[in-house]
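Recap from last week: sequence in, structure out.
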Amino acid sequence: MLYHNLNPVLLDLGTLQIRYYGLFYALGFVIAYFMIPYVARKKGIPFTKDDAADFLIYLIVGVVGGSRMGYILFYNLPFYLQSPLEIFAVWHGGLSFHGGFIGSIIAGYMFCRKKKIEFYDLADLVVVPAALALALGRIGNFINAEVFGRLSNVAWCIDYSKNTFIEGLPEGCRHPSQIYESLKNLAIFAVLWYEKGITLPKGFMFWTFVALYGLFRTFIEFFRAPDEQIGFIFGYFTMGQLLSFPLFLIGVYMLAYLWKK
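Predicted structure tokens:
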């Protein structure tokens, strides 16, 4: 058994707090700024750092706005209908990968139309740093002691109840599902990093990301506690699984289609 007593606040300036989660979120966009042009050169796609800087504006709006709306619609709509001002209180938590994924696709499509770039060219570039950024984000979740795992007696289970920095944490020892998810995203990053040096059909790296994320997330959700306001769906599945398994099916179909084509 391990005990969680991490302070989620890196720097407290009174009215302003700098939290590890926000820092990791920002670091993800910085990584994207440097990595997208690098991967573009490896793939022979003309995409400069200036293009990356322009795209990041679209991406930040798409990811933050989409992940917020995804959480509201998929995870806690009744609460936000009763408290609509809370929609804008992003600092209270409540971001969804699936909403952010949809938001990033919309942002990418709009950017491609403006710059006259093929969508798959851009999508194949973005998923590489995206996987790494998601790994950092889950570490932020772990430090925040949120989206924790189910009760467990494995030797590496985490007891959050004695944390002196965060109130209201659950009793019992739990799977460190945030770390599982971070490792999952690192594994996806490793696959995509390998694929960047191979000649593949356009869109293949993008759909590889979609298929692997959908598969791994569906599996890891068996170790993650369901959202308290939703619980188990059909008595067994989490909302994350219902949203992720279709990604796996669509991703596999599109990979087979692109390979055959």
